[in-house]
Amino acid sequence: MALPKNKKPKIILSGGGTGGHLYPALAIAEALKRLSPESEILFVGALGKIEMEKVPSLGYKIIGLDIRGFQRSFSVENLKFPYRLIKSYFKSRSILRNFRPDVVIGVGGYASGPLLMAAGGMHIPSFIQEQNSFPGKTNLYLSKKAKRIFVAYPGMERFFPAGKIELTGNPVRSNLMDFQNGDPKAYTQWGFTQGVPTLLVMGGSGGARKINEAILNHLSLIQESGIQLIWQTGKNYFKSVEHGILEFLGGKENSKWIIRPFLDEMNQAYSVADLVISRAGAGTISELTLVSKPCILVPSPNVAEDHQTKNAQALVESQAGILVRDAEAANELVPLALETVFNKEKLHSLSKNIHALAFPNAAENIATEILHTALNPKES
User: Fold this and answer.
1) For the chain, how long is the longest CA-to-CA vector?
2) Model confidence over 161-210: pLDDT tens digits?
3) SS (H, E, C) 339-364
4) DSSP tag of 8
5) Bridge partners of 277?
6) How far apart are CA 6 and CA 340, in angstroms?
7) Could you give all domains of the chain from N- to C-terminal order, each with its CATH number?
8) Is the pTM of this model over 0.70?
9) Between vectors from CA 358 to CA 20 and to CA 278, what angle results, nearest 5°?
């Protein structure tokens, strides 16, 4: 993209709170820098959340707002919500006055609400990136003044003005663009054997209790099957899972079971996986579509609007994934996973169908639209 001389687009990316909101924002920032290295990018996040540590480590500046989500169950923190919202709104106005962005984009999460509300009041062009198939109330409200709404699922005109919607898919981390399925080096890294069915289990950075319990309670069945296992337990459950495995194995090791609290080498994990068990966060699903991995999704019941179930159902309707409800995981998950991982015809069908849902250029397409607006303010 050719930029006007001496024009340095100034862009604010707002949101976070969880990796599911943060990683799409980082992917967009990377794309903006690739397309326009002169761009000046500022993140606005929520104090105490993942973005406040992750964003600076990647070389971006971030300002934190003292904002939290409104809890569905009674909480003393809810009493502070109106004060925090008002405080964050006025701080957002101050940020906008000082930074003077050409555009702002909200990716969801606590901080995007007050920042985009302030931008709307100051007539600064704003964009929304909605990751889920069922949007939250904040994005529904913010959509009234947004210039464009980037969505990951078709049919979103049920929620947003049809003329503002652009189906782009969800941006994913750039290292997945170099993904190689069945990479021999990945098998060597894990100490695995090619041709032996491999199951990848993920529960997010915090972990998924019901998924972990289901695996832990079926260790004998998994061992008898002879499959290879990569199990990301989440930091909250790693010690209890490790203890349970050591107890089951009598203090010995199973070299075909890799147990980690967190996985940094996702490329290599996806490369060797024949089947993935995961929660149904929008970011994870987007990664699975990009790497064409058959999956069994166990939606978290502890999310707003039950959006993970709706995300998973969108895949099921395309015969691109299998859904097991959280309450049924204890009994159904592992037997179904073992049945599926040995069914090559089923795996091939799931892989083909989920691949058809991928949007590999999501970040670049979103960044291009943002830069066009930043460089052509008279069209806003």
Assistant:
1) 70
2) 999 999 999 998 777 767 889 999 999 999 999 999 999 999 877 789 99
3) HHHCCHHHHHHHHHHHHCCCCCCHHH
4) -
5) 201, 296
6) 57
7) 10-170+360-379 (3.40.50.2000), 175-355 (3.40.50.2000)
8) yes
9) 45
